């Protein structure tokens, strides 16, 4: 084949190959169906569902502040670290004073006169470091002296005995108090306070409301229980400042006192979406595209201990169900009410408009105005009838109708 002919056929072959490949890609895309929209990356929770705050303190340079409040630091430690510190506190104290008892015996020469019956040691039958360690344990724990006992010929031993008794009592009070507070922490009581797994948006008395449910699994009640809700989402100020975790209060009845709960049976907490609500202009579609987190906080005093307890949970935008309502969990039995916690988290769909609360309020206002102007009143009918009757005989009735004045009532005209 000639070179000029071969050069002219090469671009045509490349173009044909490119078109065939493009057609194959289009057919594959058509066969695969419509492309799925990309999944939105899940929001990082500020508060976990179990109430733990997902915040870690970093680059804390002033660590000495933790030692200034050592008691709270020990209470906040994890259980394994608290138990380790508890064991070390006693073991090191016993070892420290045991070493001092051994040094006293060594300095006095008691260890060199173990077989001398005429020698009066500081501590009888103290023949080494192990015996001194056991004597330290007996002194601090007040177990009692049987084989080893201090004598009255050792003034330095008497002083050390007083110091160990005082310091041992302080260590006992500190460590036992720390463990008691840790065991009786009220956050364990919060484990039996449950929140619904989802929040719902539906109509209540003709108004859109954001609702969630709370319940108490124990028979002992939470005294002076109160509920709060916070909206966590990013915002940018007019000056351009970006606030990543801005907190906004969601009213759950603070003005009316509905936030004070009598938590004997599960309650549905409602946030009315009004003009003061951050969801005032949020429709169903806009709410699904939004990115926020709702943190709910339940506080109260434990009836058994009187300590303040706080339970927390949160709801992401994917956990807010539009057009749903909670299933009833309370039934009336023979002489008592029964709560069925098996359906505590269950919801069901109800007819709910997809528009925002602002649009719903405007539509209701327009409907009220239309009904007001479309219903004729009896006074307007009287004005029209009398105006038509007096229009031919004079202008008195016409003048009154033009000026908007109403004729006197029927009883007064007859008189």
Automatic annotation (TrEMBL):
Instruction: State the membrane topology.
Output: Multi-pass membrane protein
Biological process terms in GO annotation: potassium ion import across plasma membrane; regulation of monoatomic ion transmembrane transport
**Where is this protein localized, as stated in its record?**
Membrane
InterPro entries registered for this protein in UniProt: Ig_E-set (IPR014756), IRK_C (IPR041647), K_chnl_inward-rec_Kir (IPR016449), K_chnl_inward-rec_Kir3.3 (IPR003276), K_chnl_inward-rec_Kir_cyto (IPR013518), Kir_TM (IPR040445)
Query: Where does the Inward rectifier potassium channel C-terminal domain lie?
Result: 193-363
Q: Where is the composition biased (Pro residues)?
A: 406-415
Domain of life from the UniProt record: Eukaryota
Swiss-Prot/TrEMBL catalytic activity: K(+)(in) = K(+)(out)
Residues spanning the signal sequence: 1-24
TM segment ranges: 83-106, 157-181
- Its main localization is membrane
A Pfam family name for this chain?
Answer: IRK_C
Keywords in UniProt for this one?
Ion channel, Ion transport, Membrane, Potassium, Potassium transport, Signal, Transmembrane, Transmembrane helix, Transport, Voltage-gated channel
Provide the residue span(s) of the region labelled Disordered. Answer: 382-415
Q: What GO CC annotations are associated with the protein? A: I(KACh) inward rectifier potassium channel complex
**Site (Role in the control of polyamine-mediated channel gating and in the blocking by intracellular magnesium): residue numbering on this chain:** 172
Give any GO molecular function from the UniProt entry. G-protein activated inward rectifier potassium channel activity
Query: Which Gene3D superfamilies would you find in this protein's record?
Result: 1.10.287.70, G protein-activated inward rectifier potassium channel 1
What does the subunit section of this Swiss-Prot or TrEMBL entry state? Associates with KCNJ3/GIRK1 to form a G-protein-activated heteromultimer pore-forming unit. Interacts (via PDZ-binding motif) with SNX27 (via PDZ domain); the interaction is required when endocytosed to prevent degradation in lysosomes and promote recycling to the plasma membrane.
Q: Which family does it belong to?
A: Belongs to the inward rectifier-type potassium channel (TC 1.A.2.1) family. KCNJ9 subfamily.
Q: What name does this protein carry? A: G protein-activated inward rectifier potassium channel 3
Q: Where does this protein come from, organism-wise?
A: Rousettus aegyptiacus (Egyptian fruit bat)
């Amino acid at each position: 084949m000639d070179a000029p002919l071969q050069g002219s056929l090469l671009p045509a072959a490349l173009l044909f190959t490119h078109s065939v490949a493009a057609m194959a890609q289009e057919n594959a895309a058509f066969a695969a169906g419509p492309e799925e929209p990309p999944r939105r990356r899940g929001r990082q929770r500020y508060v976990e569902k179990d109430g733990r705050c997902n915040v870690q303190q970093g680059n804390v340079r002033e660590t000495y502040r933790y030692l200034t409040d050592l008691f709270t630091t020990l209470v906040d430690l994890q259980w394994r670290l608290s138990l380790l510190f508890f064991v070390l506190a006693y073991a090191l104290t016993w070892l420290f004073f045991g070493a001092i008892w051994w040094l006293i015996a060594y300095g006095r020469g008691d260890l060199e006169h173990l077989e001398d019956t005429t020698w009066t040691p500081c501590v009888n039958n103290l023949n080494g470091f192990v015996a001194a360690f056991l004597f330290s344990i007996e002194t601090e724990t007040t177990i009692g002296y049987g084989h080893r006992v201090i004598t009255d010929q050792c003034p330095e031993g008497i002083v050390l005995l007083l110091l160990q008794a005082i310091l041992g009592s302080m260590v006992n009070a500190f460590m036992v108090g720390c463990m008691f507070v840790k065991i009786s922490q009220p956050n364990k009581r919060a484990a039996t306070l449950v929140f619904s797994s989802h929040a719902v948006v539906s109509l209540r008395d003709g108004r859109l409301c954001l609702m969630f449910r709370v319940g108490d699994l124990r028979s002992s009640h939470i005294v002076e229980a109160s509920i709060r809700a916070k909206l966590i989402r990013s915002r940018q100020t007019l000056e351009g400042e970006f606030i990543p975790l801005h907190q906004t209060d969601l009213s759950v009845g603070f003005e009316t006192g509905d936030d004070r709960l009598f938590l004997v049976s599960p309650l549905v907490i409602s946030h009315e979406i009004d003009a003061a609500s951050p969801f005032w202009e949020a429709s169903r579609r806009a709410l699904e595209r939004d990115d926020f987190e709702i943190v709910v906080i339940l506080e109260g005093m434990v009836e058994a201990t009187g300590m303040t307890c706080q339970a927390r949970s949160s709801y992401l935008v994917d956990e807010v169900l539009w057009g749903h309502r909670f299933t009833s969990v309370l039934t009336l039995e023979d002489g008592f009410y029964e709560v069925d916690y098996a359906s505590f988290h269950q919801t069901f769909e109800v007819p709910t408009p997809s528009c925002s609360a602002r649009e719903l309020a405007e539509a209701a206002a327009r409907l009220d105005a239309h009904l007001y102007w479309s219903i004729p009143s009896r006074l307007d009918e009287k004005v029209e009838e009398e105006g038509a009757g007096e229009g031919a005989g004079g202008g008195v009735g016409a003048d009154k109708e033009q000026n908007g004045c109403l004729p006197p009532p029927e009883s007064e005209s007859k008189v």
